[in-house]
Fold:
Amino acid sequence: MKQFVYDEIGKQLWEWDKNNYKEWIKKEWERTWRLLNRYDPKPPLDKSQGFISFNPLDKNEVKIPEKARIKITVAKFLVRKLELNKFTNDEIIRKISDKINENFFGEVEIRLDKGSKITENYANNIGGNSCMSGDYSKCTMLYEMNPDRFEQLVVVYANDTARAIVELLDNGKKNCDRVYATSDFVETKLEEYAKSKGWKDQSRNDLIMSGLNFKDGCVPYMDTLRYYRIEKNKLIIFNRTRNRIYVGCLESTCGNIYGGTICCSCDEPFDEEDLYRITDEWYCEDCYNGECFYCQECETNFHNDYKFIIQGNSYCENCANSLGIECDYCDETVHRESCIVTNLELDICDKCKENYFNCVVCNKWFDNDDNYEGDYCEDCYKEKLEDEDEEVVGV
Structure:
C-alpha cells in the first residue's frame, strides 16, 4: 500500500503543478517515503471503508512497540501524518484520497433513481435505517407518484450507502434534502456531488413545490419542505416563510395528512402520540388494549394472534420458543428454567417434580418407582452395597 500511496502523491502533484512537484521532490520526498515505511499504512483489519491503519510513532519518528495500530480516514492520514497540505490544496488531497480508496476498496458508484426504485431503496434500507425505511417505505410513495419532480441520489461504496432526495422546485432548480448514510465517507461523497451540481445552495424563498400528486398514507415525513396546503386536490409543500399560508406540517411517519392517523382496527383518526405502532400498523389505546399485548421478554408490542401464554405471562412466538418447553408429564408449557431433566431426558415441570426424586449421589432425577433405600438410584445403590461389602471383607 505504501508504494501506491507514494506513487499517487507524486502523480497528482505533477499533474496539478509541476513547480510544486519539484518543490516536494527537492524538500520532502525522502521524508515522505521514510514516514510511509515507518507508519506502514495498510487497509484496516476490520475492512472499514475509506480508512487507513498505521503504526504509532513517537516524536523521533520511531515506532512505539507497545501501542496498537491506529485507524483514521485516508484524507486525515495524508494531512496529519504526511503533511501534504504544505505542498498542495484540499482538492488535490481529496483526489489522492479517492484514488487510494478506489484502488483498495473499490470504485464509488453514484446514481439517480426515480419512481418505484425510490420506494424500493427505502424498503432495502439504502443509506441506513430511518423512520421512513424498511416496513414504512410504502409511506414514501409520494416520490414514486411524482417521478418528474423527485429523484433519489444514491452513493454506493463497498458495503456502505448514502441516499438523499433531489427535489425539482417550482422555479426549475433542484434541491438536495433528507440525507442519510451508513458512513462518513459515503456521506461526504454525496454532499460533494450535490454541491458540484448546485443542489445545496437554494434560497429559502425558492423552496416550494406545487401540483404534486398524492394519496393519504403515502406522504412521508419531510424536513425542509415540511409545510403544506392542498389546492384542487394537488399537494403544495414548502419551507415556511412569513407570507405563505399552510394548513399543517408533514411530520407523520405513517404517511397520513388528513385528520390525524387512522387506527387500523376501528378506522378512527387520532393524534400520532395517542397511538401504538405494531409492526407497520397503528392502534388506538382502546383497540390496543383489546387486540394487542406486550411481550414480557423482548418488551415489544404484538397483535394477540401472536400471543403465547407461559405460566400466566404473555410472550411473542420467538420468545415463547426460546423460553418455553412442554412438560413431558402433564403436557403443560412452562418456563424452561423451571424444569428438571430426568435420566431418560424427560423435561418435567416444577409442579410434576413430586413424581421424581433426586439421587443423593449422582444428583440425577429418577421416577419415584426407581427409588432405592435413602433416595438412591439403582446404579448408585449397587455401588453403595459394593462399598459396604468391601468394608466388611476388610474387617
Remarks:
- The mean pLDDT is 83.
